Amino acid sequence: MSPVHVLHDAPLAPLTTFRLGGPATRLATATTDDEVIAVVREADQTGTPLLIIGGGSNLVIGDKGFEGTALRIATSGYALDGGTLELAAGENWSEAVARTVEAGLAGIECLAGIPGSAGATPIQNVGAYGQEVSATISEVVAYDRRTRETVVIPNAECAFSYRHSRFKADPGRYVVLRVRFELEDAGGMSAPLRYAETARSLGVRVGDRVPAADARRTVLALRAGKGMVLDAEDHDTWSAGSFFTNPILTEEAYGAFLGRVRERLGEDAAPPAYPAGEGLTKTSAAWLIDQAGFTKGYGAGPARISTKHTLALTNRGEATTEDLLALAREVVEGVRDAFGVTLVNEPVTVGVSL
């Protein structure tokens, strides 16, 4: 095995889509699974704090940086056999989606344009526009830091739920190396569309299929309109995408929430509401933020709400992580005061918290 590339006192901001955060004591870049495991084992054996970085699209790193070893996973590997797809953790997710669509396969076409790497997708159970990776992931290959061995975890044991998994629940245990998917050969057609906005944009009904390439193209256009496709020239994309998850409320909490909504907005007010399992209702974080007075472009400092989408907090070019967190806390407090709902951040925070 060739020596792993290592930098000391290395800037981490350029490795994140926020372009925020201080340096790491040490930054190791691994290009093979063996290198990933070697760096992890060394950190574990020496008791060195370890930060895993993939595409950096879901990270908020504190201004002081990270005291320890940051491991950038830059592995590559795209293998397609029929409908079975294996991606190395370091593969660019959006590019991988494009290749599956070109191959005429369905199942992840509506996840186009999501920034980041393939290895992060099972951790967050990445989802958008009616699809989640949990519907197509067959198994995850990971290094288990507790048992010090490589393990293969089938879908049924990943404990997938909304933006969650066993990997996210136990963040210090697993390092994802590869992700395997089972995709559908539908003759170049998409999976049945499950998101009303996508279907409407395509002029079809929810449940219909369209050419997968059309579904991908439409999703990319919808995302771009919300500043959710990376563009170095567009500060609305200097973000982590959706900063808050959509709240899921119990019957009691939803009843109290509905009362607050009608008290504030009138008896006919109807907030977005979607079934989320027995006795649970999911509502829209974007709607809550907007209705609490935090509209597109809100903010006077270098960290502001996106001009295209209220759910994205952005770095306008000169922000610090503390600027971003101050805005996030203002939004959380405002929504809680208005509606009694506490928003939860979606990105992983390093060295800081809300």
Total number of strands: 20
**General form:** globular
In the CATH hierarchy, what is the architecture of the largest domain at level 2?
2-Layer Sandwich
Which regions are unreliable across 5 or more consecutive residues at pLDDT < 50? none
CATH topology of the largest domain: Uridine Diphospho-n-acetylenolpyruvylglucosamine Reductase, domain 3
Q: Treating each run of at least 4 consecutive H or I residues as one helix, how many helices?
A: 9
Adjacency order of strands in the biggest sheet: 6-7-13-11-12
The chain-level mean pLDDT equals: 96
Biggest sheet character: 5 strands, antiparallel
Order of helices and strands: EEHEEEEEHEHEEEEHEEHHEHEEHEEHE
Q: How much helix is in the residues? A: 25-40%
N- to C-terminal distance: 41 Å
Structural class: alpha+beta
Write down the CATH class of the largest domain. Alpha Beta
Gyration radius (Cα, Å) is 21 Å
Give the amount of beta strand, in percent: 15-25%
Catalytic activity: UDP-N-acetyl-alpha-D-muramate + NADP(+) = UDP-N-acetyl-3-O-(1-carboxyvinyl)-alpha-D-glucosamine + NADPH + H(+)
Cofactor: FAD
Domain FAD-binding PCMH-type: 20-186
GO molecular function: FAD binding; UDP-N-acetylmuramate dehydrogenase activity
